[in-house]
Amino acid sequence: MAVFAALFKGLNVGAKNRVKMDDLKRMFESLGFLSVQAYIQSGNILFKSGEEEAVLRTKIEQGLIASFGFYAPVLLRGADELETALNSFPFRETDPPGAAGAQTLYIAFLSAAPAPEALKRFSSYKSGGEDFLVLKRDVFLYLPHGVRGSKLAGHLHLLDNSATLRNLNTLSSLASMAKMMTE
Fold first, then answer.
1. Angle ∠(23,27,31) on CA atoms, nearest 5
2. How far apart are the C-alpha atoms of 15 and 137, rounded to whole Å?
3. 77: buried, middle or exposed (CB in 10 Å: 19+, 13-18, 0-12)?
4. Do 56 and 126 fall within a single domain?
5. In the chain, which end has fewer C-beta atoms inside a 10 angstrom radius, N or C?
6. What is the tens place of the pLDDT at every residue in 52-102?
7. Does one domain contain both 93 and 12?
8. Is 162:7 a contact under the CB 8 Å cutoff?
9. Contacts of 74 (CB under 8 A, 6+ apart)
């Protein structure tokens, strides 16, 4: 059994697509997933499964529609991928983890690696000292003035993939929880 993090895009953000995490956790359990754990209210679930990622994604998205009546993309990462992302995170010397890092250091989880032409379009929106680095299907972002009002973060859709954003502290917590589930 592998440990996965399910990261929803647009779940429990604003007034739309609101789901209590306990209800979301129960939905995951009803789908047959094991050791289901929720982390904060913004749509982060950790679970164990022996199924492949594509099958899991379809199963979870269909479960969301059946249980709550709306669609929200889910991006999945294995425990090893979370750990690799955390250990590979650039820009830490610019803003170390903690209160400051939570406001300036982000990761965008993508459904697939972006194409070079999409990266070129996206890159044109860097401003005010913003920077990014792409590793496979993760985009690491340095947003020195925060995510709100960031031109770069506001144009993740140009990468032509589903994307969901988490700060470095959330990534760290998810990686730690996933690691404990594998032990």
1. 165
2. 29
3. buried
4. no
5. C
6. 999 999 999 999 999 999 999 999 999 999 999 999 999 876 655 555 556
7. no
8. no
9. 6, 7, 8, 9, 57, 60, 61, 64
Name the pLDDT band for 14 (thresholds 50, 70, 90): low
pLDDT in tens, 147-171: 988 999 999 999 999 999 999 999 9
Domain end (from 43, 78, 113): 78
Closest alpha carbon to 54 in 81, 35, 75: 75
Question: What is the distance between the alpha carbons of residues 141 and 161, in angstroms, rounded to a whole number?
Answer: 16
Q: Let me know how long the chain is.
A: 183
Class of residue 127 by CB neighbours under 10 A (exposed 0-12, middle 13-18, buried 19+): exposed
Helix axes 168-182, 79-88, angle to 10 degrees: 140
Domain that holds residue 126: 82-181
Measure the CA dihedral 138/140/145/150, to 10°: -30
Helix, strand or coil, per DSSP, at residue 10: coil
Count CB-CB contacts under 10 A for residue 89.
20
How many structural domains are present in the chain?
Answer: 2
Distance CA 125, CA 128 (A): 10
Name the domain boundary from 25, 54, 78: 78
